Automatic annotation (TrEMBL):
The gene is Cdh12. PANTHER family: CADHERIN-12, CADHERIN-23. The keyword Metal-binding applies. CDD domains: Cadherin_repeat (cd11304). The chain crosses the membrane at residues 530-561. The keyword ATP-binding does not apply. It is found in: Cell membrane. Cadherins are calcium-dependent cell adhesion proteins. They preferentially interact with themselves in a homophilic manner in connecting cells; cadherins may thus contribute to the sorting of heterogeneous cell types. It holds the Pfam family Cadherin. InterPro entries: Cadherin (IPR039808), Cadherin-like_dom (IPR002126), Cadherin-like_sf (IPR015919), Cadherin_CS (IPR020894), Cadherin_Y-type_LIR (IPR000233), Catenin-bd_sf (IPR027397). One of its GO terms (biological process) is adherens junction organization. Residues 4-84, 85-193, 194-308, 309-413, 413-531 form the Cadherin domain. It comes from Bucorvus abyssinicus (Northern ground-hornbill). Keywords: Calcium, Cell adhesion, Cell membrane, Cleavage on pair of basic residues, Glycoprotein, Membrane, Metal-binding, Phosphoprotein, Repeat, Signal, Transmembrane, Transmembrane helix. This is Cadherin-12.
Length: 718
């Protein structure tokens, strides 16, 4: 309740409320100032509220007093029971633990106010699980309550725990949880055989290493505490058997170490001991953690296959032994009481086995074909023996036959030797060491001998020195050899072996003469090197040869050019009426030189059809042959010149052949001036060449020529 001293009770004061929960949780009477809760309060949800109150004048709305703050605290009541937030619980404790052994601690939580009353004061108790376990009322620690709890008797326990507030008093609230407790195993039990004697029946045909029976000792423990190790106690028959532990079933597996024979011994007795592998020292006082049982084994008689007298047979025979020769025998017996007869045969696997045969009754082995040691030195096959009374019972044995060598091949030089001798070799010098090989299987101590063949013994070139250790040396017998006289020597060497009968062969060795330095190092063995001059290397000789070849080429080119020059010499004719422009290499000639051009080509136009190269000039390059149209058979020089002019005008490859020649007695420096038509006046009027007769004897031929042309053709050519 709120009240202001200024409130006279006449309704002039108004009370207001603000703050935490105002209007939602709490409300105030504006006239009286009474505060009321308008809904239920939960301390666990909100333990207190902070509010502010003020008195206000009803008329002026102004505060009559400063605003005051106050706290409303929610008082706790016991409305929450204890709860196990981590339950249910799972725990374990070793079996045979003493009283008070720690198992687990549980904890309950009460949401009530622990500072107010006993609402949050919790007490623990066991509702189910006594008398095996106990719990501390205050701490909630669970411990064992009975000694020597045995896992093999009971392994799982379920304990019901209660937590009650109000200190456990009447009217308090309570909560419960479950604790599942498991007793873990310890090795507190030794293994025990369920019976003292085990009887086993084993066939005598059982294979070595096979399992012939199982026995088992019982251990109520679990896991590694129940692992058992079995051992055979030394005694009767213990060395024929062995025992191991099956890890999955913990059984003792008895295995056979040696073959059994009913005819030799029919029963065996021995003891087996079972013990734990992992012992717990706390339980040694209980007694030894092992047990012993007796095992009796009865051997059963079985119909067994024949048994060979040896595990393997080895025989020897000479090669080329006649077919049908007996080389050995195998023997097998039936050891059973009935003692049946035995039959033998070869286990055919390939064609090699057909080289031998076996007598089915006696077991003797004989050759069936001729044997060759060089082809096959050893044969390996199997013989099978079966009982007549039961052919399905068979046994097998390996037979090895070694083929002995007969000396049938002569020895030969082991490898092809490349032997050489220096030209400057001295007598007695070893130039090659040789050895021999024999295709026959050489027995221990066999030796080869070396010598020259009789036809080579008298030659003074080489000799053979036998070292008597299956090698020999080729030695020189003279001082120096010449490749010019003889490059190759052929030396026949006779090689004999020491077997019987003695075999020998003649092997021809090739010895090449080589050029060597003073130390005996070979410099050259080529045939070409014989003719090389002494003191010149190969490179120098090649250079000399190249120089000679170059000189020969230069001479040939010079001769060819001279011949070409002669062919290109310009020819002329006495009847040539053309101006000849000629270049002379030397002085002289003049108008009497008429050999520069062949005037016959002008006289006879058909010559053009021969496609000859012009001889009045020396062509610089080779021109393609031009196909000229045929020229009519006439002697009109004008038509011929026009025709030639037209051809050269349309031919792009034809150079201009107008040329200028300088004569010693012509031109500006000559009394006769120039005779060339280049400077002559071109006119249609007839020319008078009579003045040529007045020029002297040097122009007589020219005067006669033009005089004849005037009589032959009235047209004048300029």
């Amino acid at each position: 309740k709120l009240h202001s001293d200024l409130d006279k009770g006449v309704g002039t004061v108004k009370y207001t409320l603000s703050g935490d929960g105002a209007g939602t949780v709490f409300t105030i009477d504006e006239t009286t100032g009474d505060i009321h809760a308008i809904r239920s309060l939960d301390r666990e949800e909100k333990p207190f509220y902070t509010l502010r109150a003020q008195a206000v004048d009803v008329d002026t709305k102004k505060p009559l007093e400063p605003e005051s703050e106050f706290i409303i605290k929610v008082q706790d009541i016991n409305d929450n029971e204890p709860k196990f937030l981590d339950g249910p619980y799972v725990a374990s404790v070793p079996e045979m633990s003493p009283v008070g052994a720690y198992v687990l601690q549980v904890k309950a939580t009460d949401a009530d106010d622990p500072t107010y009353g006993n609402s949050a004061r919790v007490v623990y108790s066991i509702l189910q699980g006594q008398p095996y376990f106990s719990i501390d009322p205050k701490t909630g620690v669970i411990r064992t309550a009975l000694p020597n709890m045995d896992r093999e008797v009971k392994e799982q326990y379920q304990v019901l725990i209660q937590a009650k507030d109000m200190g456990g008093q009447l009217g308090g609230l309570a909560g419960t949880t479950t604790v599942n407790i498991t007793l873990t195993d310890v090795n507190d039990n030794p293994p025990r055989f369920p019976k003292s004697i085990f009887h086993l029946k084993v066939p005598e045909s059982s294979h070595v290493g096979s399992a012939i029976g199982r026995i088992r000792a019982v251990d109520p423990d679990f896991g590694k505490n129940a692992e058992i190790e079995y051992n055979i106690v030394p005694g009767d028959g213990g060395n024929l058997f062995d025992i191991t532990t099956d890890e999955n079933t913990q059984e003792g597996v008895i295995k056979l170490k040696k073959p059994l024979d009913f005819e030799t011994k029919k029963a065996y007795t021995f003891k087996v001991e079972a013990s734990n592998l992992h012992l717990d020292h706390r339980f040694h006082s209980v007694g030894p953690f092992k047990d012993t049982a007796t095992v009796k084994i009865n051997v059963l008689d079985m119909d067994e296959p024949p048994v060979f007298s040896k595990p393997m047979y080895t025989m020897e025979v000479y090669e080329d032994t006649p077919v049908g020769t007996i080389i050995g025998a195998v023997t097998a017996q039936d050891l059973d009481a009935g003692s049946s007869s035995v039959r033998y045969f070869i286990d055919w696997k390939n064609d090699v086995d057909s080289y031998f045969t076996i007598d089915a009754t006696e077991g003797t082995i004989a050759t069936n074909e001729l044997l060759d040691r060089e082809s096959t030195a050893q044969y390996n096959f199997s013989i099978i023996a079966s009982k007549v009374s039961n052919p399905l019972l068979t046994s097998k044995v390996n037979v090895i036959i070694n083929i002995l060598d007969v000396n049938e091949f002569p020895p030969e030089i082991s490898v092809p030797y490349e032997t050489s001798v220096c030209e400057n070799a001295k007598p007695g010098q070893v130039i090659q060491t040789i050895s021999a090989a024999d295709k026959d299987l050489s027995p221990a101590g066999q030796r080869f001998s070396f010598r020259l063949s009789p036809e080579a013994s008298n030659k003074p070139n080489f000799t053979v020195h036998d070292y008597r250790n299956n090698t020999a040396g080729i030695e020189t017998r003279r001082n120096g050899y010449s490749r010019r006289q003889q490059e190759l020597y052929f030396l026949p060497v006779v090689i004999e072996d020491s077997s019987y009968p003695v075999q020998s062969s003649t092997n021809t060795m090739t010895i090449r003469v080589c050029r060597c330095d003073s130390d005996g190092t070979i410099l050259s063995c080529n045939v070409e090197a014989i003719f090389l001059p002494v003191g010149l290397s190969t490179g120098a000789l090649i250079a000399i040869l190249l120089c000679v070849v170059i000189l020969l080429v230069i001479v040939v080119l010079y001769v060819a050019l001279r011949r070409q020059k002669k062919k290109d010499t310009l020819m002329t004719s006495k009847e040539d009426i053309r101006d000849n422009v000629i270049h002379y290499d030397d002085e002289g000639g003049g108008e009497e030189d008429t050999q520069a051009f062949d005037i016959g080509a002008l006289r006879n136009p058909k010559v053009i059809e021969d496609n000859k190269i012009r001889r009045d000039i020396k062509p610089d390059t080779l021109r393609f042959t031009r196909q000229r149209p045929p020229v009519e058979d006439n002697t009109d020089i004008r038509d011929f010149i026009n025709q030639r002019l037209q051809e050269n005008d349309v031919d792009p490859t034809a150079p201009p052949y107008d040329s200028l020649a300088t004569y010693a007695y012509e031109g500006n420096g000559s009394v006769a001036e120039s005779l060339s038509s280049i400077d002559s006046l071109t006119t249609e009027a007839d020319q008078d060449y009579d003045y040529l007769s007045d020029w002297g004897p040097r122009f007589k031929i020219l005067a006669d020529m033009f005089g004849e042309e005037e009589s032959y053709n009235p047209d004048k050519v300029t």
